[in-house]
Amino acid sequence: xxxxxxxxxxxxxxxxxxxxxxxxxxxxxxxxxxxxxxxxxxxxxxxxxxxxxxxxxxxxxxxxxxxxxxxxxxxxxxxxxxxxxxxxxxxxxxxxxxxxxxxxxxxxxxxxxxxxxxxxxxxxxxxxxxxxxxxxxxxxxxxxxxxxxxxxxxxxxxxxxxxxxxxxxxxxxxxxxxxxxxxxxxxx
Length: 188
Fold this sequence. Notes:
Blueprint: E1 2-7, H1 15-29, E2 33-38, H2 57-61, H3 70-79, E3 82-88, H4 96-108, H5 112-115, E4 122-129, H6 136-149, E5 153-161, H7 165-184
Parallel strand pairs: 1-2, 1-3, 3-4, 4-5
Helix pairs in contact: 1-7
């Protein structure tokens, strides 16, 4: 079994990374192969809305015309059994890097070829708010919505705030154990 963890934070020591690592380490402890990807370190452009209608090859062919790291990351998701999306919360919403990636992912998923290996893929979301922490719930709603629009199966989206991070690390460990059990079940 393989899971890819996609982090919309550039700080591998920060709160978002700690939260994601809690879940990913639980998966690894159950024998799941885990890969972490830090989106801000990758070249992922925002959608260009290629034609006058605001679409492009994403709608007609299920792929994006932009030549950057997007296609390679989509291939990693397709080859994984599940994907974890962890984002810091900015202005009550997703980080700019994860937003750019997910906006393009949901566009290619409008086409049958773009959905291949994405549709129904198990996904877990983690939204980590610093500051007052009040934006975590609205970010969780946004992440759930965009993952669903990308035809994935968001099994859970966990809002975390700076003030409850230590408690949520335990919740995320349990979530990782649970996900490993779900992935181990025979499909059918």
